[in-house]
Specification:
single chain; alpha+beta; 2 domains; five-stranded antiparallel β-sheet; DUF6894; DUF6894 domain-containing protein
Length: about 130
């Protein structure tokens, strides 16, 4: 399993992880970093310190940075799907269905016009052949 390191930054100070931890994937390491950020944030809030400017940097086994996890991202509530947004999605779906129906109707009309033109051109060719 790959080894990841987690360097903690707070108030301009970086605490480097010298041991590292093995995880099956970067995604698992990220989820662990988020959980750790949440736990550390609670500790900082308990002592009345603002954790919003802290972060955890995830590094690979060669100590190359892979991603930064700001505590503010972990602490920020996820936006809920508001009814207005759902209405907007419904409007988009409805508009799409109308456009699809219109497109099918236009395709049928164009097909009919094409058949008429082919019949007309066939008649013109036949008349031209008789004139030769």
């Amino acid at each position: 399993m790959p080894r990841f390191f987690f360097d903690f930054s707070s108030d301009g100070t970086v605490v480097a992880d010298d041991v590292g931890t093995e995880f099956p994937s970067l995604e698992e390491a990220y989820l662990d970093a988020c959980q750790s950020a949440l736990e550390m944030s609670f500790e900082k809030l308990r002592i009345r310190s603002d954790p919003n400017f802290d972060s955890v940097e995830i590094l690979d086994a060669r100590r190359q940075p892979l991603m930064q996890v700001p505590f503010s991202d972990v602490l920020r509530p996820k936006p809920s799907r508001s009814p207005a947004r759902q209405d907007q999605c419904s409007e988009i779906v409805s508009s799409y269905q109308e456009q699809l129906t219109r497109g099918k109707r236009l395709k049928a009309e164009i097909g009919e016009e094409l058949r008429k033109m082919q019949t007309t051109f066939g008649a013109i060719r036949a008349n031209l052949e008789r004139l030769k």
